[in-house]
Each structure stands twice: as C-alpha cells, then as structure tokens.
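Need residues for this backbone.
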C-alpha cells in the first residue's frame, strides 16, 4: 500500500455495549486514502470504528485489548487524553448530530474552544474554512448565527463534517454517514469524501456496496466480529480471495 501508515490496530479485541465483539483485528490504514469497512449488521464494523478514537468508552462496560496506534503511538497508553485524541481522530455518525442549542457557527467552533490561544477572529477564519471544505459555506454564510436545527438533514451532516475537520484532525471516521440522507445528500457526502482524502485519512463504515466501490481505495470485510478479508477495493469486489467475502458481495447473505 502506498503512503505512510497513519493508523494501525494490532490484535484488537473489543466489546461495545450489546453490539458484536471484535476479535483479533490487525489492520493498517495508510495516509490520504479512503478505507471502507463492510459486512452485515452486528458484525463489529461500528464497534471497531469507535475503538479508533476511544468513543466506545462512552458506553458502560465497553472494553478493548490490543493496540490502536496513531502515528506509531498507542492511543490507549497511560496519559493519553481521549478529548485531545478525538481532535486528532474526528468522527461523524450515522444520523446528523448538530448541537441543538448552538448556532451554525458555534457548532463548527465547538472543538476549537479547548484551545484557549485562539481569538475570535481566528476562530471565525477556521469556521469559514471548515464550512467551505464541507461545501456548506455558500448555503449558510448569511445565517451563521441561526440554529443548526433549521438546516436540512444533508446540510446538518455536512455541518457535522465541518465540525469534525475544524480542529485539523489526521483521521476522519465516518459511521454510515449517508444512511439517513436522500440520494442528493448522499452524492454530496461522497463527493466530499473523495476530495477530503487529499488532506485526511478516512475510514468509512457502509452497508452500501456500491458506495464502498465508489469512494474507497481499500476495503475490509467483517463477519461475526472477525476480519475476513482486507485489500484494494477493486480486488475485493472483482476477485475476493475468501468465499464468505464473495458470498456477501454477491448478495447471498447479509
């Protein structure tokens, strides 16, 4: 695989609430590529994704064993702040999650408030730049002080993407980001994913095989918590090595 490895897991076991466990997953995610995670519901995709920035820790009883390395450093090492980690590894969820009592501008700036060295003018610059990168600026520039809840579903999801990229993360995690969107909203998000990989490493969970084929460079197939197969997306979809991968891709189960 081309490019330096930005993110890596080694022998990762995890359990997230009542969801499927993840068993002994070792994966490497090179920089500036889009990596798709596919598989049936409950197979561990989202559980795995949440371990990459310790988001699973928000659920009582969740645990992991093994390592998650970001630029070669274990994100679970003693002294690593989950809050600071999530600035470096941003996440966008299946349903848009704008903060309901904040304006559009304040939603984007939410992750910037931790850095007390940023003054108001600098924050405003970052908000505009982030909204432009999320292809939302032209649609909201005249109502930045309005409630984010007044945006459409697709706009809200792009707002969440802008909020995620505002702190300049190294990695963006997308957990079925178009599942609740209409076809037009889905297309906009997919176009953004393709553009943003020039700046970020992106890991996306999707149930849509066509979407995985369109947007990703590499694909990993999960089944019953195990990583069955990982490789270049073209190879996975045209010449899978594992029979279970082929069966899933061709619709025989899932």
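Answer:
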């Amino acid at each position: 695989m081309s490019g330096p490895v930005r993110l890596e897991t080694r022998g990762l076991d995890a359990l997230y609430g009542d969801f499927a466990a993840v068993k002994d997953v070792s994966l490497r995610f090179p920089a500036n590529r889009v990596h798709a995670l596919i598989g049936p519901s409950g197979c561990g995709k989202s559980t795995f994704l949440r371990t990459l920035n310790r988001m699973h820790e928000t659920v009582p009883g969740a645990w992991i064993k093994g390592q998650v390395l970001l630029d070669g450093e274990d994100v679970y090492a003693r002294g690593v702040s989950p809050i600071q980690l999530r600035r470096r590894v941003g996440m966008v969820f299946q349903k848009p999650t704008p903060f309901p009592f904040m304006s559009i501008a304040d939603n984007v700036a939410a992750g910037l408030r931790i850095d007390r060295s940023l003054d108001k003018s600098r924050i405003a610059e970052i908000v505009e730049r982030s909204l432009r990168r999320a292809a939302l600026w032209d649609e909201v520039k005249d109502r930045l002080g309005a409630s984010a809840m007044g945006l459409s579903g697709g706009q809200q999801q792009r707002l969440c993407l802008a909020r995620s990229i505002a702190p300049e993360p190294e990695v963006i995690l997308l957990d079925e980001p178009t599942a609740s969107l209409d076809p037009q909203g889905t297309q906009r998000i997919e176009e953004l994913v393709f553009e943003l990989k020039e700046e970020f490493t992106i890991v996306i969970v999707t149930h849509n095989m066509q979407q995985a084929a369109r947007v990703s460079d590499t694909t990993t197939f999960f089944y019953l918590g195990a990583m069955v197969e990982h490789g270049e997306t073209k190879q996975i979809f045209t010449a899978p090595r594992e029979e279970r991968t082929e069966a899933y891709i061709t619709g025989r189960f899932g």
